[in-house]
Specification:
Elements: H1 3-15, H2 18-25, H3 29-43, E1 48-51, E2 54-57, H4 59-83, E3 89-93, H5 95-101, E4 111-115, H6 118-126, E5 132-135, E6 144-159, E7 170-174, H7 180-191, E8 198-202, H8 205-215, E9 219-222, E10 232-248, H9 257-266
Parallel strand pairs: 3-4, 3-5, 7-8
Antiparallel strand pairs: 1-2, 5-10, 6-9, 6-10
């Protein structure tokens, strides 16, 4: 039994698709199919049931997948020990999370930080281009494990010279519909039946802050964003928004979640 065949089997099992696994591994589909058949012949068992929707593991396939995960994890640890190097955890996060919470990790040798939008984060994690993603948006994926890193304190934010009245105000939000701060802002207005306002939508955090600083617009944002912006202040009732950490159940690196929490909160 070849290790490469186990890796091929594992990717087919993960994607439930020969074509997706072949694309991920850089192989042609026929080669992937051939290696699966070789593995089934060698083990004298059927590992997948095949239908129009893709590849489903049999009971025997589930057993092999579990053992393959253990083998791949052990191999990763062995490689790290032989190199005598610490593992590097690749962290992906949204722009706001990176600015607010991850700057303390930039000088840490065991962490590399990358910034993507929400959709890119999920793709990078699924394709193992990052080990962990940190986001304040809820993700529902059976492949992921999750943990709550912290709860963000979110308030209404304004320039010191601006009025705190929401009636007839310029309300500025991120254009992304799933942005939690956008949701908090618009949900508050709806809950309190405030309809007389002008809604401004922008694409970046920089434009949103500029709108608050220069054009007296209002928005709900994390309290932490005021730390280096003395001209801004918050008002109103606090809302807690959880910040989640997600990683694949099959992560083959030693992730110390408590250490990561401490480094982020220490910031």
């Amino acid at each position: 039994m070849e290790l490469s065949d186990l890796k091929i089997f594992y990717e087919v099992a993960r994607f439930e698709s020969i074509s997706h696994a072949a694309n991920k591994l850089g192989y042609v589909q026929s080669n992937v199919s051939k290696r699966i058949k070789v593995l089934e012949k060698e083990l004298n068992t059927i590992l997948f049931t095949r239908n129009n929707r893709g590849m489903k593991l049999t009971c025997e396939g589930e057993i092999l997948k579990k053992h393959t995960e253990n083998i791949l994890i052990s191999l990763t640890i062995l490689k790290a020990e032989l190199k005598g190097q610490e593992e590097i955890i690749k962290i992906g996060a949204t722009q706001t999370i990176s600015i607010n919470y991850l700057q303390s990790l930039f000088l840490e040798k065991t962490y590399d930080c990358y910034t993507f939008n929400q959709q890119e984060l999920l793709e990078k994690l699924i394709y193992k281009e990052v080990d962990v993603i940190i986001t304040n948006q809820v993700v529902s994926e059976d492949e992921f494990k999750s943990d709550i890193l912290l709860d963000e304190a979110v308030f209404w934010t304004k320039h010191q010279s601006a009025s705190s009245s929401l009636n007839q105000a310029n309300i500025i939000v991120n254009r992304q519909l799933d942005c939690p701060y956008r949701k908090a802002t618009l949900n508050y207005l709806k809950k309190h039946q405030i309809t007389d306002f002008t809604l401004i939508e922008v694409d970046t955090l920089e434009l949103l802050i500029t709108g608050i600083e220069k054009y007296q617009a209002l928005s709900m944002l994390p309290e932490i964003m005021l730390e280096d912006r003395p001209s801004l202040e918050n008002f109103g009732t606090k809302i807690n928004v959880p910040v989640h950490l997600y990683y694949l159940k099959t992560l083959q690196k030693n992730l110390n979640i408590e250490q990561l929490k401490n480094l982020i909160i220490k910031k």
